[in-house]
Specification:
224 residues; binds adenine; Alpha/beta knot; EC 2.1.1.228; tRNA_m1G_MeTrfase_C_sf; alpha/beta; two-stranded antiparallel sheet; Trp Operon Repressor, Chain A
Length: 224
């Protein structure tokens, strides 16, 4: 999978891809992430990429020309499955969306800043708009990292234990059951006896019952 991320502050997104599991995914050649600074496509010597909104109002708007030039250049180099704009106005990210994107080959993530992007960029290029939640960030960069992480970890070979993405919270619309490791008792808190029983069928049943109990308690909407 290849992800091209377009931003005014690409340096904000460097470390997540240079650390831990995402770094290993890059090194193994399972995912490539390329950053593009919108200022490299600005149309004047001041490297301007934003301007005042027509009709007045607070905040600046990201201009159509630099974004159109940048996206058009990328599109001339390969076919993209989706061109995604990260914005609080988008569809809220969930595991289903991450699963769907994880089988794509080439993606563009466009990070918004200021008040947003000129509508004509959306009309010309954007195929999907995604929000990571009902709150407003300073820009789309952190949202792009969240989206990339949720997708890349699903690529075959990225996680060591192939099973672990399949048993995630949300993969089957249930939250996770409680988990424990050594010691058996800590500050009077004992590990549930069933987990020490060696009876794996009974353990699976217990885990499922606990997952249902916790989901009912915290996220009954997932069971509807
Ligand atoms: N940009 C600013 N806030 C955002 C959010 N919640 N999700 C995606 N992109 C954003």
């Amino acid at each position: 999978m290849r992800i091209d991320i377009i931003s005014v502050v690409p340096e904000l997104m460097e470390s997540p891809f240079k650390t831990s599991i995402l770094k290993r995914a890059m090194e193994k050649g399972l995912a490539e992430v390329h950053f593009h600074n919108i200022r490299d496509w600005s149309i004047n010597k001041h490297r301007q990429i934003d301007d005042e909104p027509y009709g007045g109002g607070a905040g600046m708007v990201m201009m159509v020309e630099p974004l159109d030039k940048c996206i058009s250049e990328l599109k001339s180099q390969r076919d993209y499955d989706e061109i995604i704009y990260l914005t609080p106005d988008g569809e809220t990210l969930n595991q289903r969306i991450a699963n769907t994107l994880s089988i794509k080959k080439n993606l563009i993530f466009l990070c918004g800043h200021y008040k947003g992007i000129d509508q004509r960029v959306r009309d010309l290029h954007i195929t999907k708009e995604i929000s990571i939640g009902d709150y407003v960030l300073t820009g789309g960069e952190l949202a792009a990292c969240v989206l990339a992480d949720s997708v890349i970890r699903l690529l075959p070979g990225v996680l060591n234990d192939e099973q672990s993405a399949l048993t995630d919270s949300f993969q089957d619309d249930l939250l996770s059951p409680p988990i424990y490791t050594r010691p058996e008792v800590y500050k009077d808190l004992a590990v549930p006896k069933i987990l020490l029983s060696g009876n794996f069928a009974a353990i699976e049943d217990w885990r499922h019952d606990e997952a249902v109990r916790i989901t009912k308690e915290r996220r009954p909407d997932l069971l509807e």
